[in-house]
Amino acid sequence: MTSQPADSSSPENSGEAIPPTQPANLQVQSHRIRRTRLGGIWVAAVLFALILLLLLIFILQNDQRVSISYLGGSGHLPLGVALLLAAVLGVLLVVIPGSGRIIQLRITARRHRRLDVASKNRQVAPLAAADTTLEGTGPPEPGP
């Protein structure tokens, strides 16, 4: 094992930095496409179509006739239609009171915004009036 003497003229041993072949901060720019409303509508339409397809399959597979009675009325419907009708009415029982509460909160928020703007206007008006009435009442300016 013989060791080779180090060549002092090489950049490794001279303390000089070896210039990189590629810049270290070079990053590949990836183009990110932002989502748009139209794209969101398209995705929603596809999901809606899939749900309708699943509901259609559900109704076609549950075509047994069942007797439905409600508040004195009665009739015969396919089982799938009866279950779908019950689900839609259940959703309406949740959506109608929820919509009422949302409207109530929006009215309250609008009222609070109006009160906030009115109180800010009342605070600004006395300050502006005070500024105009106090003109010339400050300390005398030094003369020439």
**Sheet/helix structural class:** mainly alpha
| Fraction of residues in H or I helices | 55-70%
Tell me the distance between the termini.
96 Å
What coarse outline follows from CA principal-axis ratios?
flat
In words, what does this structure look like?
With 144 residues, this protein is mainly α. It has a domain at 45-129. The chain has helices at 11-14, 37-61, 79-133, and strands spanning 65-70, 73-78. Strand 1 and strand 2 form a beta hairpin. The longest helix has 55 residues, at 79-133.
List the helices and strands and how they pair.
Layout: H1 11-14, H2 37-61, E1 65-70, E2 73-78, H3 79-133
Antiparallel strand pairs: 1-2
Helix pairs in contact: 2-3
Throw out a few tags for this protein:
144 residues; mainly alpha; two-stranded antiparallel ribbon
A few lines on this structure:
The chain is mostly helical. It has 3 helices and 2 strands; from the N terminus they run ααββα. Helices cover 58% and strands 8% of the residues.
